[in-house]
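Input structure tokens:
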């Protein structure tokens, strides 16, 4: 009798967990594109600059003009090109430098913060780039100082906390 109670208790907990995961994924899927209400697609000129600077073929899904393209759509391309060494687990010498970023995205920069030194000696600064120009989804890039290597790339889509 006790075995059955334990079995059904474990089964109930398992089913509750499964339903919770299902609900959270369904909720995330339903609200996945809510962030698009806060901005508009990128202008064709901006898309052209990005496709050219990142050497994307005109057949690329972001460059072929067949769909609306938003700033956040480029985040994976930006990360893969600049290879921030924290995320890619590579030596800082293999990451893009501030100058590399400026060549490809400098036209979209609107602010760089002063250099900060943490207690542990880590020294860096952050520059903010906005592909759309509405400051809704800026891309923050942390550069080490004085090496000027790309350390981390950040972008909030308004759904990160879900």
């Amino acid at each position: 009798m006790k075995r059955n109670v334990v079995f059904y208790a474990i089964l109930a907990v398992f089913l509750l967990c499964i339903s919770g995961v299902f609900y959270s994924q369904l909720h995330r899927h339903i609200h996945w594109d809510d962030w698009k209400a806060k901005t508009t697609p990128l202008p064709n000129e901006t898309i052209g600059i990005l496709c050219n600077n990142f050497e994307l073929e005109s057949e690329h899904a972001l460059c072929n003009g067949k769909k609306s393209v938003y700033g956040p759509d480029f985040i994976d391309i930006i990360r893969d090109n600049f290879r921030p060494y924290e995320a890619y687990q590579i030596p800082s010498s293999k990451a893009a430098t501030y100058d590399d970023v400026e060549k490809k995205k400098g036209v979209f920069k609107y602010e760089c913060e002063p250099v900060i030194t943490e207690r542990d000696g880590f020294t860096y600064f952050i520059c903010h780039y906005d592909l759309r120009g509405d400051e809704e989804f800026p891309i923050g890039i942390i550069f080490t100082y004085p090496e000027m290597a790309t350390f981390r790339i950040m972008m909030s889509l308004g759904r990160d906390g879900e």
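The CA atoms of residues 53 and 104 lie 5 Å apart. The longest strand covers residues 123-129.
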